[in-house]
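Readers of this paper often ask what the protein records in our data store actually look like. The remainder of this section carries one protein's record, kept here as part of the documentation.

:::
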Amino acid sequence: MSALSKKGSCSSQLCLALCAFGLALLGDLSQAVPMDDQDYYLQEISNRDHYYSFPYPGEEYFPFTEQPGEEGTIRAAEPEEHPGFKLSRKELKPKKSSKKGKSILETPPDCPPLGLETLKITDFQLHASTAKRYGLGAHRGRLNIQAGVSENDFYDGAWCAGRNDLFQWIEVDARRLTKFTGVITQGRNSLWSSNWVTSYRVLVSNDSHAWTAVRNESGDVIFEGNSEKEIPVLNMLPVPLVARYIRINPRSWFEEGSICMRLEILGCPLPDPNNYYHRRNEMTTTDNLDFKHHNYKEMRQLMKTVNKMCPNITRIYNIGKSHQGLKLYAVEISDNPGEHEVGEPEFRYIAGAHGNEVLGRELILLLMQFMCQEYLAGNPRIVHLIEDTRIHLLPSVNPDGYDKAYKAGSELGGWSLGRWTQDGIDINNNFPDLNSLLWESEDQKKSKRKVPNHHIPIPDWYLSENATVAVETRAIIAWMEKIPFVLGGNLQGGELVVAYPYDMVRSLWKTQDYTPTPDDHVFRWLAYSYASTHRLMTDARRRACHTEDFQKEDGTVNGASWHTVAGSINDFSYLHTNCFELSIYVGCDKYPHESELPEEWENNRESLIVFMEQVHRGIKGIVKDVHGRGIPNAIISVEGVNHDIRTGADGDYWRLLNPGEYVVSVKAEGYTAATKTCEVGYDMGATQCDFTISKTNLARIKEIMRKFGKQPISLSLRRLRQRARQWRQRR
């Protein structure tokens, strides 16, 4: 063997040894880092070369362009669009441009978001030149991401560069060739600081080493960024570019702040049928439904279409009007629409209390289409549910707020545009605070004012015309009082979790504290029934939406332990009516792009059905007198549970309970009390637990006297009259 070949062999062996040593060292280093920090540490190690590819100030710099003809050359997109990315013209509807460029071009984008906000883009696909700390790393540079109150090392509100210079960047790896068309930016979400980027460049690459800047006739395009930290700003690329990587390079920033950004990238992934990774992760649906965002007129038309398809099981009605006079339409689904059937429980879904939380609205519209289609197809599960349940679907509680969000578009409304009613009220927290009345009564046992543990009356001050109560809230309360709902879910957005009452802490000195209801075990089961059947809520591998990791409770949370809220719809429903209500947060993105709706439907479809089926868990029955007549307003008590319910107008009742054996009592004014043991099994279907009670002797006497036109005479008055007669006789 020649010396040269030996030398080459030694060199190759030495290289292999060094590579092995390097990998071992990297492994040891990663083990030395806490588990929570390993991914971030490895990401920073792998990105270190990227930062040093930028020269220090004063050095020459040329890496943003690729030479034509080289491998990996960036090319302009072909004018033909791929048919799989057909876009609604109303999606991402841009505002008119302003002098400061806040805007949003006059034509809608051609491609949907890649998914930074929806978490389709993983943390491993986001890289940055530097970061101030872990909580301000590239993984936090997502559109609309929210910071924790303390803005700590783990959960802050943007990517923030470690230095303020012209050589900072944040990069997205699309993991496949993508036609990039636009960029949406925000500043840092923070209660304590103001940071945003006022201008930036956009660069693209096929290999993350050689970069091409977006250019026009006069050179590199400098895009105008934000002028404050919350309003999203959209900039379209002059010409769509096809590449794998896209990088944002800030050029100027708020002079009293630093380089901080949240962003979303608009782009159309190009078809790649040979890529197993993408085929495996693509979500499709076989349901033939109307997957689009519906404005008020379109929502009403869709309801009519469903009613026309299924006239025998659907009914459209309204529960009132919004501040601007829009009717609050609901759809009833039942085998006898418009009629309460004795012994049949009533269920409700509502959505859109926050007008900008649009996903819940569309899920309810999809649900009514799905149930109609499946009923006509003879799906036994859906047929059984419709025949045994009266279902009410109210998709838009706050249509005025939705209209504002809809006009801005799915990515451009920010975190709060359209959240409140037209008169600035948050419907979700606009109900009477009955918790305080109950707890004050329980704490002051000697108080003359006794408050029942159920059906607590609404305070007089709340009913006055001067009270700050939205007309939409009053309409919902009247609806809740009119119909004997048993179970309900209000669909919200911005998180992936199911929250159950109480939503208000009992202690005056705490903002977060687990505050259970007497039915805590039932509520926890109801929450878990939705979360466990959702495709993502209980997935331990998924990333937290913003700052809270709800995996320790399997995708559920007690509302008060999350953040205290007085006057929530959940607490009011539990304390004022028989209905158990939960808040279901159906997605990280409040207003997902239209192209995301099929996947969101698949994520939630089974959960929506399973949760409705829980209305048939527990006990049910009819409370009658000896003549077989139903007794309304009778009180149903369960031993060991300090919360009662009442019978409806026909004497029927439903009491949600987990499997077990219960001692159940009934009492009604003028009737003798009765008690029996009722057993709840594990199979779906409520246990029948009827009561027949008789009138008390006093009630019978009063009834007889009224029947013959006489009023009962008190004993003391009778004695006085008798003594008077005796005195007259003696004279």
Observations:
- DSSP finds 16 helices and 27 strands in the chain.
- The first strand starts at residue 75 and ends at 76.
- The first helix runs from residue 3 to 32.
